[in-house]
Amino acid sequence: MAVLASLKTFKGGHYFGLFEGTPRGVRLKAAPLPKRVLIPLRQGFSAEVAPTVKEGDRVKTGQVIGRTEPDPHKPSTPVHASISGRVVKIEKRPHPLGGEATTVIIESDGTDEWQLLERPANYEKLPPEELGKILYEAGVTCGGQAGFPTVYHSAPATPEKIRYLIINAVETEPFCEATDQLLYEEFEKFVQGIKILRAALGNVQVHIGLAYNKPRIYEELIERFEYYDWCTIHQLRPKYPQGDDAVLVRTLLGLLLPQRGYATDVGCVVQDVQQCVAAYEAVVEGKPFVERVVSVAGSAVKEPGNYRVRVGTPVGDLLEKNLRCNGRIVIGSVLRGSAVGDLEIPIVKETPAIIVLREAEPELLPVAGPGFDRDSFTGVYVSLPWVRYKRATTSLNGNPRPCVKCGYCVDVCPQNLVPALLGEYSANGLLSEAQALDLFACIECGLCAYVCPSKIPLLEQIREGKRKILSS
Ligand code: SF4
Ligand code: SF4
After folding, report:
1. Whose CA is nearest to atom 6 of ligand 2?
2. What counts of helices (H) and strands (E) characterise the chain?
3. Which ligand has an atom closest to residue 456 CA?
4. pLDDT digits 0-9 by tens, 325-343
């Protein structure tokens, strides 16, 4: 095993302070079993699959409710029921990641009767195809930004194209604490999950990216992987967006992802802590991937917490009686996610957090607020020693104003872009000029919009520019 002594990082990025309502160090709790789940048949990277159940059918937890024959042009992974009960409706509904998807709605019978997968007698001896089959059948292969490759076409790449398995154990998103907590509480499953994922890829090299502020996990990883020459542990600075595939692969291996490409294009598969734990539970315990960890956080939340939540649970169930005031609900990420008004929007396998931000209060010094200390999102002006938490509200501190050419957006951009120009060109229809400045190299981390003192919605403008080019 190689351990790289020097801390690795990348140019740009941002360290967030601790925001009010962050469930740091809060132990994982099981969320109550939902009375009703809404499970979209489009998950992660996958194409939408066809329902295999009909209205009125009884289903068990873990039973397949949607799948499509493997197709190299439409990568997909089967979808499972996350509770036992009756299918009451199959209809098009809004998907939390955008657009609409066919959704299977199941009402619980309260028994949580499981249908487990067949468990191999000795998984360590299974060939890669067999392990891949279990991961595919368990729904684990839809995870990551480009899925996990198997011979069942669960990702755009095929397994023989993969040379490196990258483990993302560096969580840098504000409020998203649940996966860190999972790392501490399910360390053994995490370690075994890494070995399973590696074996399913034909014993490739493994690179683990771990935040340097986790010395206990670091020591334990060294102990567990000491005798394996296929594993390298990298200590990373926990700077946002270190966990993004493009940034992580570049930091660890020096490989550049092509624009509009995936990690698999350069022979890498990136999987996070949740994926590793799900791989272990599928292969060793026979459990399909029907539950994930989610942080419920934000300045409007009474008791921030980290929960094990069934996929398909409506957001409203997790917030019931847990709000101290009105707030804006954001799914997944305060920087990249979008606000939702519909409390029926479900948790999916890609939802690390539900964040509720207080509505903004009038500010005494509105002119001093924006952009102070490059943290224009927060209402805290000065970092006072007795103020432990910053407060994130929905405050936009007024309407967008003209660019003041401060260059903050350029300083933080992890992709070395000029966000001010990308935003301006996109907003004004100068799309070929935006493309000439590598518009599609933008990974949509949202940092430029976060630090902009003029509150220019740079991320929105850039996304719109990309959309226009792709649809033209
Ligand atoms: S231009 Fe894209 S990659 Fe750069 S900071 Fe803005 S959102 Fe992030
Ligand atoms: S867009 Fe915003 S952050 Fe970028 S230079 Fe202009 S004012 Fe500064």
Report:
1. 403
2. 12, 18
3. 2
4. 888 899 988 888 878 889 9
Q: What is the whole-number distance in angstroms between the Cα of residue 460 and the centre of ligand 1?
A: 11
In this model, does residue 168 exceed pLDDT 50? yes
pTM attached to this predicted model: 0.92
Domains of the chain with bracketed CATH: 2-27+118-285 (3.40.50), 34-114 (2.40.50.100), 399-472 (1.10.1060.10)
Question: How are strands ordered across the β-sheet holding 231-236?
Answer: 2-8, 231-236, 205-211, 164-169, 268-272
Q: Is the CB of 456 under 6 A from ligand 2?
A: yes
Task: Identify the bridge partners of residue 310 per DSSP, sorted by sequence position.
Answer: 291
Each residue's pLDDT tens digit, 451-471: 888 889 999 999 999 999 998
pLDDT tens track for 102-139:
999 999 999 999 999 999 988 889 999 999 999 999 99
How far from the centroid of its chain's Cα atoms is residue 222's Cα? 26
Write the DSSP assignment of 378-410 as a string of letters.
Answer: BS--S--TT--SB-BBS---SS--------HHH
DSSP 58-100: EE-BT-EEEE----TTS----EE-SS-EEEEEEEEEE-TTSSE
Cβ(415) – ligand 1 distance below 6 Å: yes
**pLDDT tens digit sequence for 417-431:** 999 999 999 999 999
Cβ of 460 closer than 6 Å to ligand 1, yes or no, is no
Ligand nearest to the CA of 420: 2
Residues making up the chain, counted from first to last: 472
Instruction: Enter the tokens of residue 333.
Output: 């990420």
